[in-house]
Design goal:
This protein has a single domain, classed as AttH-like fold (Beta Barrel). The chain is mainly beta. It has no helices and 21 strands. Helices cover 0% and strands 56% of the residues. InterPro entries: DUF7064 (IPR055492), DUF7065 (IPR055493).
Length: 324
C-alpha cells in the first residue's frame, strides 16, 4: 500500500478509496480525476467522474489532446448514476469503467465510446451535438509514485503517478508512457460559487509539483506539494498564482511554489461547460500546459481555472499585461 503523508486535520483510511454515503446537500458530489501527459507534451488526456446522487445524475468527461490535432472530447453532464457498488458509467454512446485494485495503489481506467472532434476547443462551451465524431478508447493504468497527499481540512487527496497503457483515436492506437495525477474528493461541491486554480505537472528531472488556490477574496497560505526525484511527497504551504487572460481564456499563470517559482503556459485546451440546477452557467477551461521553472527546468502537466458566474470579481490575481 502506498504511504499516506499525514498533515493537518484530515486523516485518510483505505476505505476512503471507495464510494461514500452521500450527505443531504443537493450538490453533494463525489469526484474522481485521472490525468496524464507525455513528458514531451505530444499527447495528454484526462477523465473525470463526478457523482451527484441527490441531483440524480453523474458527470462524465474524457478528453484527449495531441500536438497538431483537434480536441477529442466526451462531455456528458446528464449521465446515469453507476449501479450501487460500482463507479462504471454505461450509455448508448460510451462505456467507462474504473478499478482501484489496491487502496492508494494502482487504478485502471477504460473508455470505449464516441467523442466529438473540436478543432476550436471553445466549441465545448456550446452545443456541439452537430460536431464530427470519432471512436475514442482508453485502456490506462495509474501507478502511485511516492505516496498520497491528503488536503488539510477537506476530504480530498491527490496521488502523483506514472501512467501506462494505450489510447485509440480514430482507428490509431497509441502507446502511453506518461506521468500524471489522480485525485478523489467528496462533499458539497457548488461549481457556481467560487473560482479556483488547480495545477499538477512533472519537470524534466523527475520532480512532481502540485498546487491549488481558491479565490475567496483574501490571501491564504494555499497548500501545495513537490516530489523530488526518487523521493517522497513534501508538503508545503504558501502557494499563490497570478494569471493573465485573453478573450476569457487563460494565457499564462505564474505559480509561486515555495522555493520553485515557475510559469505555466497552455499548450492545448480541453474545456467543458456546466449548468447549475437553476440554470446558471459556468466555464471550466482545463489545459495541457508547459511548466517552466525559473531555475531552467521544464515539463508538462495539467492546469485548470474554474470560471463560475462573476469569476472576474472573485479575487483572481492578474498579471499586469496579457501576452500577445
Amino acid at each position: 500500500m502506498a504511504r499516506i503523508i499525514e498533515h493537518g486535520t484530515w486523516n485518510l483510511e483505505p476505505a476512503d478509496e471507495d464510494l461514500h454515503a452521500p450527505g443531504p446537500e443537493t450538490l453533494w458530489n463525489e469526484s474522481y480525476y485521472f490525468d496524464f501527459a507525455a513528458p514531451d507534451g505530444s499527447i495528454a488526456g484526462y477523465v473525470r467522474l463526478g457523482l451527484y446522487p441527490n441531483w440524480d445524475r453523474a458527470w462524465y468527461w474524457a478528453a484527449l489532446v495531441r500536438q497538431g490535432e483537434p480536441l477529442l472530447l466526451v462531455a456528458d453532464n446528464d449521465a446515469p448514476l453507476p449501479k450501487p457498488g460500482t463507479a462504471d458509467v454505461r450509455t448508448g454512446a460510451y462505456t467507462a469503467t474504473q478499478r482501484i485494485t489496491e487502496p492508494f495503489g494502482p487504478a485502471e481506467v477504460t473508455l470505449d465510446g464516441t467523442a466529438s472532434i473540436l478543432p476550436d476547443p471553445t466549441a465545448a462551451y456550446g452545443d456541439h451535438a452537430a460536431a464530427e465524431t470519432t471512436r475514442l478508447t482508453f485502456d490506462l493504468r495509474w501507478d502511485t509514485v511516492s505516496g498520497v497527499y491528503p488536503y488539510k481540512d477537506i476530504p480530498r487527496y491527490e496521488i502523483p503517478c506514472t501512467v501506462s497503457g494505450t489510447v485509440t483515436a480514430g482507428g490509431e492506437t497509441i502507446a502511453i508512457d506518461a506521468h500524471g495525477e489522480r485525485d478523489h474528493s467528496w462533499g458539497e461541491r457548488d461549481w457556481w460559487k467560487v473560482s479556483w486554480l488547480w495545477t499538477s505537472g512533472r519537470l524534466g528531472d523527475g520532480t512532481f509539483v502540485h498546487g491549488m488556490q481558491a479565490n475567496v477574496g483574501f490571501p491564504l497560505p494555499w497548500p501545495c506539494f513537490a516530489v523530488p526525484p526518487g523521493g517522497e511527497i513534501e508538503h508545503r504551504d504558501g502557494f499563490t498564482a497570478e494569471t493573465s487572460f485573453a478573450a476569457g481564456l487563460p494565457a499564462r499563470s505564474r505559480l509561486r511554489y515555495p522555493g520553485a517559482p515557475m510559469t505555466v503556459t497552455p499548450v492545448a485546451f480541453a474545456p467543458v461547460a456546466v449548468t447549475s440546477p437553476d440554470g446558471r452557467p459556468a466555464r471550466f477551461p482545463r489545459a495541457l500546459c508547459r511548466f517552466e521553472a525559473e531555475d531552467g527546468r521544464s515539463g508538462h502537466g495539467w492546469t485548470e481555472w474554474h470560471q463560475p458566474p462573476g469569476w472576474e470579481d472573485h479575487g483572481w490575481t492578474h498579471l499586469a499585461e496579457d501576452p500577445a
